[in-house]
Amino acid sequence: MNFRGYGNRLIAGAVLGILLLAVYLFLTLVSEEASLQGEKAFILPEGFEMTEAVLPGLLSYPMFASFDDSGNLFVFESSGHTDGTQEILDRPDFRILLLRDLDGDGVFDHRTVYADSLPFPMGGTFFQGSLYVTAVPDLLNFTDTDGDGVAEEKEILLSGWKLNHNAAILSGPFMGPDGWLYMADARRGFDITTNEGKQLSGKGARIWRCLPDGSRLESFAGGGFDNAVELAFTPSGEVFGTMTYFVDPQGGYRDALMHWVEGGVFPKPNPVIEEDGLVLTGDLMPVMSKMARVSPSGLVRYEGDFWGEGFEGNLFHAQFNTGRIVRSVVEETGASFASNDTYFLESKAADFHPTDVLQDGDGSLLVVNTGGWFIAGCPLSRTAKPDIQGSIFRIRKKAARPVADPYGNEQAWDQLAIPSLVDALSVPGPFIRKRAQEAILQQGIAAVPHLLARLTAYPDAEVRTQLVFLLYRLGVLEGLEVAAKDPSDSVRAAYARVVGLAPWTSAQATLVGLLEDASLSVVRQAATALGRLGKEGVSAALLSVLERSEDRYVRHAVIFSLWQLGEVPVLREALRHAQAGVRTGALIALEQVTHAALTQPELLAFLTSEAEEDRKAGRWVLGRHLDWSALALPLFRQVTTEGLTELQGLFRVFSGQEVFQRGFEQVLTASKEDELRELYLELLQGASVRPFPERWKPILGQWMQTGSQALRSQTLDFVLTGSLTGMEAYLLDMADPTSPFSLRVRALQALAREGYRPPAEELRDLMDGLVQEAEGKEMTQAIQLLGRMELDDASLLYLSEAILPRLEDRYVPYMLPLFEGQVSEQLGGSLLAFLVSKPTLMDKLSEDQVAQLFSGELPGLEDQVAGLLSQIRRQREERLARLHDLEERLIPGDVLAGRNVFYGEAGCGDCHAVSGEGAVFGPDLSNIGEIRSRHDLLEAVVYPSASFAREYESVEVRTASGAWLGIIKEKDAGELVLEIGPGVFRRIAEESILEIRESEQSLMPAGWEERLTLGQISDLMAFLQSLPDGIGAVR
């Protein structure tokens, strides 16, 4: 059969297809109201529709899916359990289903259990009759030998990855066009013995690849990110992927769409990068497209023209948190890519959680919705809902033409001549091409003359690219150099990729020629290949690339290959090159080859250079030489705002060195201007020096006594947040009753850590200050201080009778923990009388908190306590109605006015940041309008304790000396760090902790609907909904 005309004959049988389609649409529309809760549950672009793709009852909790060659669908399914990691390993109960569409109507209607008793299978790929699956700790191969839809054979190809029940684990594999299996891994650790006997162990995240038999396992890329999820490939072999945590949430971002490249070390910064010995080529590699906390998952690159112009080559990816499928139009920029991202599918259903998206043979997309079972580590899902099962939907373009034989099932592939198989490589869509590729590979060496002949003559560049990979997979590289002169960038890049993978040392001269290619992607791939060849004599040619290009991806490939080649004399000579790009590239490569190769005088030349590019590279290298503090100290004599961040990194490196501490003492002493001193405080704050050098403390004490009001306040904050000891004399001066209330409270907080308790009259004065002077942040700090004071019965009774009735309702829930464990009958009666008299408090109190408050023996008060708890329950039940009423009364808001409310009257910026402006105590809100509905936002403002963002849950930590409410920031070296207020940290020895329990009480004050006017709330909602676009962009 001649496949050159195959693409034009895909409409064969179109009349019958249209009739079947009409029947199908009628049936699906009848059921759509029940299954999708009406069309309004989902939003698609004009001209597209979504229907169910699986017969009800066949699925429970699908996570990922993958096709075999014939159009049958493997579904990797969860059991719906949210057990811990060890439980999953001990009792693995996940499975793989095989779904078939027996009547060809586009709905899968038959299933078998292909494999079961698996620990978290995270996807797979079908190749030459077998299904390759990652199910940590293993990479597995399953084979159904008799065609009954059940795998009889199971082979462990590789093992040694680490499982975690939050699904941040190894996923895939994904077959690249080069015939290698690629896998996306998480920062969980690994300890693998390869098939060749090599031991690979580490802690960081990786992108892995190996051959289908498990051999030649190698790390393709890595870094400090939390979790790479899925991968997709361009025809020339470029690797795209979804990933979580390229940065801890800030600036509205956390997750990313990636362009992975060989040897790349990607963000976020993490100690595992150094611990694993990953080779750095400068700063961590960039991400392709930044996302909010959306938890991106499944990914597919769209192939073919089924949906018309503009869709081929697009990436579609699933977002678990937002219920969206995002369309990314990818464009080449330099040696990498950029994407323009838009929402393709949006869901209004709260428990719609898409985890995978894949392309079917007719060009439609399948969307896997996992349902409501998964919560482990998920930022926006706190309660498992196993009653809400998953589903798979199909998105079609309504005007798309029916496709005849989309999987090539009607073709006798083993009987087709090689020219026809080559023609089949041009057919749109993934299935025909894949089957043609595998049929050619089955032909073996007999196919080679035909492939080489077509490599220069075939008119379709994408087919020629496939031919390059097929020849490589057949083990034939002789004669392939013609591809290096191909007019297509894709073909030339594919050539460079495969000769590097082989590795084919005879290609060295050709690759050197490609270093001058007009396409930077080809240059990058040629540089990468030269490093893989490992043949000396090309370092000078690689360095010359740095004269011509500043592209980050090109520089990475060149420097990484220079490291692989390790030609130290050439690199040392290049340190004196006239062009800064060459000098700095050589410097970084030389430093990575071996620390001993670089000398202090050589580095000093960069640190003192007139060229900023030199100085920046010099500082980067200096930060990797702990013993060169003498070179670092001069950099800190004059700090600027612009250079502060970079110097903080260096400061962290050297501040623990005694010689550096002595020198920096002189630097601090010599500083005379308060503005410079404030910068030094920022430097110290960002560097987190522990233990804090004793020789620096008197200098800070002097600043607290003689500095400006701003410097005194900033220094006090540093003493407080850094838990500095030995500062009592300076703090007592600031705790004087004549000091401003804010300074006084913070000074007393610091003193309380050392066991200081103010005299009774000063303590009473402090309590009165809660009403007279405290507001917002100061109120929070004052309440925290009182919690440290071990108040006696008289003080507690005074708080209950004289202070609580005069406080705004929003502060009362944060005062009540002061009384826990100390409620006598008299005090209990006083508290009950107050609480019962304040019906407006009922929806601001948690039932758990009040029950804990009155948990002691209180004869005669039991009925009153029960009545109060009943009243709180009733108010909670009425909360939704009140929230709905408020939402209905909102008026069109003004974004700019809402911003002013956010940073002004509401004080949201004291705890939250938007695009870097504000504090980081609470969740970053830069993209909040993109991931939360107006209803959710309003609920968070009015009833902040109704839900919590992951990573910001409130906990109560109890010790023998007191209790603290806050957010756990870290656990390190037997110590728990609790943030109890914006920038206020409490370090608690783990051995002193009696109990840690989740609190139902948010650290965010409630009652804003009473404090703000309806207009202000409307404006605030408008501002939050406008994010991330901001002013003037209300949706």
UniProtKB/TrEMBL annotation:
<dbReference type="Pfam" id="PF23500">
    <property type="entry name" value="DUF7133"/>
</dbReference>
<dbReference type="InterPro" id="IPR036909">
    <property type="entry name" value="Cyt_c-like_dom_sf"/>
</dbReference>
<dbReference type="InterPro" id="IPR013427">
    <property type="entry name" value="Haem-bd_dom_put"/>
</dbReference>
<keyword id="KW-0175">Coiled coil</keyword>
<dbReference type="Pfam" id="PF00034">
    <property type="entry name" value="Cytochrom_C"/>
</dbReference>
<dbReference type="GO" id="GO:0046872">
    <property type="term" value="F:metal ion binding"/>
</dbReference>
<dbReference type="InterPro" id="IPR055557">
    <property type="entry name" value="DUF7133"/>
</dbReference>
<dbReference type="InterPro" id="IPR004155">
    <property type="entry name" value="PBS_lyase_HEAT"/>
</dbReference>
<feature type="coiled-coil region">
    <location>
        <begin position="858"/>
        <end position="889"/>
    </location>
</feature>
<feature type="domain" description="Cytochrome c">
    <location>
        <begin position="893"/>
        <end position="1028"/>
    </location>
</feature>
<keyword id="KW-0479">Metal-binding</keyword>
<dbReference type="InterPro" id="IPR009056">
    <property type="entry name" value="Cyt_c-like_dom"/>
</dbReference>
<keyword id="KW-0408">Iron</keyword>
<dbReference type="InterPro" id="IPR013428">
    <property type="entry name" value="Membrane-bound_put_N"/>
</dbReference>
<dbReference type="InterPro" id="IPR011042">
    <property type="entry name" value="6-blade_b-propeller_TolB-like"/>
</dbReference>
<dbReference type="Pfam" id="PF13646">
    <property type="entry name" value="HEAT_2"/>
</dbReference>
<dbReference type="InterPro" id="IPR011989">
    <property type="entry name" value="ARM-like"/>
</dbReference>
<dbReference type="GO" id="GO:0020037">
    <property type="term" value="F:heme binding"/>
</dbReference>
<protein>
    <recommendedName>
        <fullName>Cytochrome c domain-containing protein</fullName>
    </recommendedName>
</protein>
<dbReference type="InterPro" id="IPR016024">
    <property type="entry name" value="ARM-type_fold"/>
</dbReference>
<dbReference type="GO" id="GO:0009055">
    <property type="term" value="F:electron transfer activity"/>
</dbReference>
<keyword id="KW-0349">Heme</keyword>
